[in-house]
């Protein structure tokens, strides 16, 4: 009797344990079925909470999964989250509609209000954060244990940039089918038609401006000054305009591999003064009738040219004390 009772207890606890294990660890089949259902019902996006997150991220996975941890609550006011959300959903939707192998890639979204536990567990304190989990089993399994983290600053916020990042990892094309923006097309058409009409109306007036050598010389000069003064660098690297430190403002960044926004403007103005002096010497001074005034003009513009040029060298030396050239100062 005792033995049978013992055996019964043993067996029932074994069964209980086994069912607990199954409840805690859903099988791959059920995970894939759930993901397929959830994503096809919701335009390709699986909305997660902390439990679902843990469940889908848990191994084994024979699917890839891109999970966006975001915070769309207006109270949190996460502007990049709002900016990226439609782009992420666009990629998910395009992937779904392209009819790819279903369990290849899934898109999940975990909002902070449903996923505080996950945020706390991962020690995340900024949003959006995007993780990419590679499959651990199956034909596409990769031998990486940590998820990849999408770097927004490097890769960008647009659907196209995100999709090309995914394509790179996945080794297959992730498409983006952006619905046409009819309003923008309409406005652009109106603007182009308006511009064409006004060009036609004003052409007789504009012809002399367009044909004038001075117009093109001015445009070229402005473009050249912008380019040689480092405007392109500012455009690409986006440095601060000036730098504040301990209530002191610095206008000039030290070293040649750095600059502030205002620096390129200072340099452009100096180059501009130099080139205007040369133009004045070539074009304006020879037209002066009075010989004395002409001589005075020559000295004046020469003086301006040399002073500005030597100041420019001085500026380069402030920026980098190793700069070898100088003129007067
Ligand atoms: C992943 O597993 C599920 C369930 O076994 C299966 O239906 C699916 O085809 C598998 N996917 C891949 C990419 O192997």
UniProtKB/TrEMBL annotation:
Keyword entries, A-Z: Endoplasmic reticulum, Membrane, Signal, Transmembrane, Transmembrane helix
Domain of life assignment: Eukaryota
Xref: Pfam families: OST3_OST6
GO biological process per UniProt: protein N-linked glycosylation via asparagine
Range of residues in the leader sequence: 1-23
GO cellular component entries: oligosaccharyltransferase complex
Entries under InterPro entries matching the protein: OligosaccharylTrfase_OST3/OST6, Thioredoxin-like_sf
Cell location: Endoplasmic reticulum membrane
Residues annotated as transmembrane: 182-203, 215-233, 266-286, 298-318
Location, primary (coarse class): endoplasmic reticulum
Membrane topology term: Multi-pass membrane protein
Record function comment: Subunit of the oligosaccharyl transferase (OST) complex that catalyzes the initial transfer of a defined glycan (Glc(3)Man(9)GlcNAc(2) in eukaryotes) from the lipid carrier dolichol-pyrophosphate to an asparagine residue within an Asn-X-Ser/Thr consensus motif in nascent polypeptide chains, the first step in protein N-glycosylation. N-glycosylation occurs cotranslationally and the complex associates with the Sec61 complex at the channel-forming translocon complex that mediates protein translocation across the endoplasmic reticulum (ER). All subunits are required for a maximal enzyme activity.
Family per similarity comment: Belongs to the OST3/OST6 family.
Protein name (record): Magnesium transporter protein 1
Native organism taxonomy: Eukaryota, Fungi, Fungi incertae sedis, Mucoromycota, Glomeromycotina
């Amino acid at each position: 009797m005792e033995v049978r009772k013992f055996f019964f207890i043993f067996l029932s606890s074994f069964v209980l344990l086994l069912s607990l294990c199954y409840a805690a660890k859903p099988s791959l089949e059920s995970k894939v079925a759930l993901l397929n259902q959830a994503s096809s019902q919701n335009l390709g996006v699986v909305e997660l909470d902390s439990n679902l997150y843990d469940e889908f991220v848990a191994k084994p996975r024979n699917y890839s999964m891109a999970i966006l941890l975001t915070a769309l609550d207006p109270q949190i006011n996460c502007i990049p989250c709002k900016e990226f959300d439609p782009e992420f959903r666009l990629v998910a939707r395009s992937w779904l509609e392209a009819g790819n192998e279903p369990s290849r890639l899934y898109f999940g979204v975990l909002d902070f209000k449903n996923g505080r536990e996950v945020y706390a567990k991962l020690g995340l304190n900024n949003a959006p954060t995007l993780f990419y989990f590679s499959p651990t089993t199956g034909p596409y399994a990769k031998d990486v244990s940590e998820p990849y983290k999408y770097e927004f600053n490097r890769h960008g916020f647009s659907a196209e940039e995100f999709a090309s990042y995914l394509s790179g990892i996945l080794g297959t094309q992730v498409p983006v089918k952006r619905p046409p923006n009819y309003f923008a097309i309409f406005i652009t058409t109106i603007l182009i038609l308006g511009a064409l009409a006004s060009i036609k109306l004003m052409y007789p007036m504009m012809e002399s401006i367009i044909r004038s050598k001075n117009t093109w010389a001015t445009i070229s000069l402005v473009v050249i000054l912008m380019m040689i003064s480092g405007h392109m660098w500012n455009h690409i690297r986006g440095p601060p305009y000036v730098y504040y430190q301990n209530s002191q403002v610095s206008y000039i960044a030290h070293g040649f591999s750095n600059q502030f926004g205002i620096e390129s403007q200072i340099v452009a103005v100096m180059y501009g003064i130099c080139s205007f002096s040369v133009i004045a010497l070539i074009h304006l001074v020879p037209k002066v009738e009075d010989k004395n005034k002409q001589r005075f003009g020559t000295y004046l513009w020469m003086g301006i040219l040399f002073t500005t040029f030597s100041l420019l060298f001085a500026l380069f030396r402030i920026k980098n004390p190793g700069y070898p050239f100088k003129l007067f100062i």
